[in-house]
Amino acid sequence: MPAARFVDQLNVQIGNELSAHNQYLSCAVYYDALTMPQMAAFFYSQALEERGHALMMVQYLVDTDTDVVIPGVEAPQSSFADVVEPVQLALDQEKRVTEQINTLLRIAREESDFASEQFMQWFIKEQVEEVATMTDLLAVVTRNADDVEDIEEYVLREQSAGDTDPTAPKQAGA
Hints:
There is one protein chain. The protein has 174 residues and is mainly alpha-helical. The chain has a single domain, classed as Ferritin, core subunit, four-helix bundle (Ferritin). 71% of the residues lie in helices and 0% in strands. The protein is elongated and about 55 Å long.
């Protein structure tokens, strides 16, 4: 059974992941309204990925016979000054999530909760990828803020849907 401190923080993280889902959904809608279908699709996909992360955490708690608490989340930011702002917000969010994931790993280690520590390893790897993706996207969007066609071409070329990761934890309901 996971350590109580870890369980409490993982339940909080479920809310953080669902909040990230809502924020990415809001970004997707913003780009959709601007008729930027590639950016919209990218953020819709990111939203689903964040929801998936929350469900992986739910499944881990269910599998370890631990209480799952789905917390409420605040409304996401839904208006943006320009095409750059949502990507900057996304990068800042990914950096915050990285710290949250690192905290979960640290708690698991401090509590000698080896199963939970192992569970968190996939998320550590995932956050490296997420920060790198958003950093690159921010550079492109900032450089091409006045040429949305170049942004759309970049996303179409570089952010194509990848294969599913066979090492990813199982999602609840999957």
